[in-house]
Amino acid sequence: MTINGDIPDRQTGLKLAEQYGVDGVMIGRGIFHNPFAFEKEPKEHTSDELLGLLRLHLDLHDQYSSLGLRPFKALHRFFKIYVKGFRGASFLRNQLMNTSSTDEVRAMLDEFEARNQEQS
User: Are residues 55 and 90 in the same domain?
Assistant: First the structure.
């Protein structure tokens, strides 16, 4: 038997599995609030880690886009997952919503990171 629904992370899932004696846990929307929901030891993540994960997502999209599974526009809904909780995130996220390719997203990320390094 498995459980699902409003399970935000691995720790909550394990607690519920033990509490109710289930065999498995499914995390769905929780991943949209925390892209690190499956990590064993939860911690705060830096903007570099979040943007690095976005870059990995872009790489995977490029790798599999030749199969025609998902158009680029489908990636827009994921930007809010990775681009949040740090200075300039809202502005960057709004810019990313106007992109039309993974190369364009990478260029914006490069520019954002370079600008932030200059300000540090």
Answer: yes
Q: Which of 46, 25, 24 is nearest to 35 (CA)?
A: 46
Rounded to a whole number, what is the distance in angstroms from the first to the last CA of the chain?
51
CA 33 – CA 45 distance, rounded (Å) = 13
Does residue 38 lie in a domain region? no
Query: Which domain, by its residues, includes 92?
Result: 47-119
Q: Are residues 109 and 83 in the same domain?
A: yes
* Euclidean distance between CA atoms 98 and 105, whole angstroms: 9
Q: What is the pLDDT of residues 41-65, one digit of tens each?
A: 989 999 999 999 999 999 999 999 8
**For the whole model, what pTM was predicted?**
0.84
